[in-house]
Design goal:
The complex is a heterodimer.
Chain A (H helix, E strand, L loop, with lengths): L1 H14 L1 H6 L5 H13 L1 H28 L11 H4 L5 H10 L3 H20 L1 H7 L4 H34 L5 E2 L5 E2 L1 H18 L1 H13 L3 H20 L29 H27 L5
Antiparallel strand pairs in A: 1-2
Helix pairs in contact in A: 3-9, 4-6, 4-7, 4-9, 6-9, 7-9, 7-11, 7-12, 9-10, 9-11, 11-12, 11-13
Chain B lengths: L18 E10 L8 E4 L2 E3 L3 E5 L6 H8 L7 E6 L2 E3 L3 H4 L3 E4 L11 H10 L9 H11 L15 H12 L6 E5 L7 H16 L3 E6 L2 H7 L2 E6 L2 E7 H9 L6 E5 L3 H10 L3 E6 L2 E5 L11 H10 L6 E5 L3 H9 L8
Parallel strand pairs in B: 4-9, 4-10, 7-8, 8-9
Antiparallel strand pairs in B: 1-2, 1-3, 1-5, 5-6, 10-11, 12-14, 12-15, 13-14
The structure holds adenosine-5'-diphosphate and magnesium ion (MG).
Adenosine-5'-diphosphate (ADP) binds next to α1 of chain B.
Chain lengths: 299, 337
């Protein structure tokens, strides 16, 4: 009965076949699914709406203020505030300078903190893992989705600021920090570059949040912890007695994006910023990987 | 009872490849507790509907988590479809469909989008056939009409069926179903059991955990019985009660009589154990203590009549799995481990 003997084995090989043959054949599918899932959540949409509302509020406030005081800003307040009334493009820079210290990293902290812990909480994580998503692959997809959110959040602020600025204020040649001027088109390119740098500045928080997210089965706890860490880092960075610590805190070089508004561009601060973000992403990413690939999934 | 699997006859030593699941000394100790699963040696033959039976807390879900690579065993090994778990998860799991500890869904997605999401997580699933496969899985569990509704609005039964649909997105060699009828109404239970039988008829091996004895007796060809993390017994369902009570173990004697008190006394004198009287219905275990020959049923009847017990009905009931369980563990089945 040698044929009968061969039967079950052949069936087993056939059943387990596709995966055995060539490894993952559609590696990008999970990333796409992950991004789509992130942006279909209510939470994500509310956060983007709040971020987009900030420049509108700032723009309206500046408009009212300049109408009343005849355009004279007194030099206090966020960077570039004084220039907005003269050139709406500066609302983009102001809005990013306003949201980068708190709103943007908090939003990223919420999305990143929830990424793994939220799925553990609802139990969908175990079904992704038996699918089998693969723990490393799932973590990479999660990080990719959070990174896309960093970009989306930044663009929500920048595009809303650009639209508000164009409606409420004149647009034209922009005067850079060193006094030189650029035509509007080149100015828009600078704004785009600023947005890109701001989005990259958030990757450290993204990786930190993802690591926290692998530590717990409660999405709320992970979000709160990540946001708490962001605020703590900001406070520590602001204490003069802790100057020695400053350069190692992820928000320390964030506002260096303003150096893109010089001619020639001054790169040192941004290089330090992006380098620090890369270190945070590498360290927190490795920690998240070490934790997530060895962890018991019982939820 | 479905026909016994073709594995046993004419096969000197069933090859390892005929074991869809095989564990050796599988043990799990959660942080700071006693073992949730303790030295488990499980052998699930290919093509069987394998019942994994045990009261709540006996370690069924923990075993399944280890088999699916969700948690690391504290000791011992597990092989699924002939490969080690959790090591070979990427090769093994695409051929396994699983429902573990109830369904878990994205409430803000429709039923259909939930399935698309889980399918996208499987690197072996072809996205070009996704729509068709999702549609077929929905049809199969009877959810096609509700596929567009948000999963949040599903009833528990519908969620359970959507979970099953996720397990059926691809042809599977093994289905692992952890208490798939939990929380369902009798109609829902019947539907799920019918589906399980259908799948088994297609040749899929089904590993079905349950704390319901009659469920296992109704749908399973084989069973393993767990109590407090330990394996009590395993084998073909038909043989389990025999293995416990001996061949020809007739199980329980049932007598209907208006004189239950006198009947209990007489039967106890004749060595019956586990005697119970429920109104006019008196039952007792026919299995004798170790070594002794089983009591002669005809003799018991005569003794009752001699003692003046008025007998309305007299008969034997085949020993149930519950009797076997009580016998093996010395405790009732609903006692939590
Ligand atoms: N995540 C966990 N952490 C600690 N103990 C657990 C965990 N999950 C289950 N247990 C314990 O392990 C034992 C077996 O549980 P489980 O495998 O869920 O049993 P069953 O599925 O048969 O009801 C129980 O005593 C339970 O309390
Ligand atoms: Mg359980």
């Amino acid at each position: 009965m040698s044929r009968a003997e061969a039967g079950p084995t052949a069936a087993a090989a056939a059943a387990a076949g596709p995966a055995v043959a060539g490894g993952p054949r559609w590696p990008a599918g999970l990333v796409r699914s992950e991004i789509a899932l992130t942006f279909r959540r209510w939470r994500t949409r509310v956060l983007l709406a709040v971020l987009a509302a900030v420049p509108v509020l700032v723009g309206i406030a500046v408009r009212i203020q300049s109408g009343r005081a005849g355009g004279g800003a007194d030099g206090r307040g966020p960077a570039f505030l004084a220039q907005i009334a003269g050139n709406g493009l500066f609302l983009v820079f102001t809005a990013l300078a306003v949201t980068l210290p708190v709103f943007l990293p908090m939003a990223v902290g919420v999305i990143a903190g929830d990424a793994v812990a939220g799925e553990a909480h609802t139990g969908t994580l175990r079904y992704l893992l038996v699918a089998p998503a693969g723990r490393t692959r799932l973590l990479v997809a999660k990080f990719a989705a959070v990174a896309v959110f960093c970009l989306a959040g930044t663009l929500a602020v920048a595009l809303s600021a650009l639209a508000t600025g164009a409606v409420l204020f004149p647009l034209g040649r922009i005067t850079l920090l060193d006094g030189s001027t650029l035509p509007l088109g080149a100015g828009l390119l600078r704004a785009l570059a600023v947005a890109a740098v701001v989005a990259l500045s958030l990757l450290g928080v993204a990786a930190l949040g993802l690591f926290v997210s692998t530590l717990t089965d409660s999405g709320i706890a992970a979000m709160a912890t990540t946001v708490g860490l962001v605020i703590t880092a900001q406070i520590l960075d602001g204490i003069p007695q802790l100057q020695a610590l400053g350069p190692y805190l992820f928000p320390h070089h964030w506002l260096s994006f303003a150096d893109l508004l010089r001619q020639p561009v001054y790169w040192d601060g941004m290089a330090q910023n992006l380098g620090l973000q890369a270190v945070y992403a590498a360290v927190c990413g490795s920690a998240a990987w070490a934790r997530f690939t060895t962890r018991d999934i019982t939820a | 009872m479905p026909a016994p699997p073709a594995a046993e006859p004419g096969r000197a030593a069933p090859g390892e490849e005929d074991r869809v699941i095989e564990t050796r000394g599988l043990t799990k100790v959660y942080r700071g507790g006693r073992p949730a699963v303790d030295g488990l040696d499980l052998a699930v033959p290919r093509g069987s509907v394998f019942g994994f039976l045990g009261p709540n807390g006996s370690g069924k879900t923990t075993t399944i988590r280890m088999l699916m690579g969700l948690i690391e065993p504290t000791a011992g090994t597990a092989r699924v479809l002939g490969r080690p778990m959790p090591g070979a998860a990427r090769q093994v799991l695409p051929a396994v469909g699983a429902l573990i500890e109830g369904p878990a869904l994205y409430g803000f997605l429709s039923g259909r989008d939930n399935l698309r999401r889980f399918d996208a997580a499987d690197p072996a699933a072809d996205p070009r056939t996704r729509t068709a496969r999702v549609g077929r899985a929905l049809e199969r569990v009877g959810l096609a009409a509700a596929a567009g509704k948000k999963a949040r609005s599903y009833s528990l039964g519908m969620k359970q069926r959507l979970g099953l649909a996720a397990a059926l997105l691809q042809p599977r060699a093994l289905l692992v179903l952890d208490e798939p009828t939990n929380g369902l109404d009798p109609q829902g239970m019947r539907e799920i059991r019918a589906l399980v039988r259908e799948l088994a008829a297609d040749g899929t091996t089904v590993f079905l955990s349950s704390h319901l004895l009659d469920e296992i007796e109704q749908v399973c060809t084989h069973a393993a019985v767990m109590a407090r993390g330990r394996l009590v017994t395993q084998g073909p369902v038909a043989g389990l009660t025999d293995a416990v009570f001996g061949p020809g173990g007739r199980g329980r004697l049932a007598v209907a009589t208006p004189d239950p008190g006198e009947a209990l006394r007489v039967l106890a004198e004749h060595g019956l154990t586990g005697l119970r009287a429920d109104g006019e219905h008196v039952t007792g275990e026919l299995a004798p203590p170790e070594g002794a020959p089983p009591p002669d049923v005809a003799e018991l009847n005569a003794a009752l009549v001699r003692a003046g017990v008025r007998v309305r009905a007299f008969g034997t009931e085949r020993a149930s799995l519950e009797d076997a369980f009580v016998r093996l563990t010395g405790e009732g089945f609903d006692v939590a481990g």
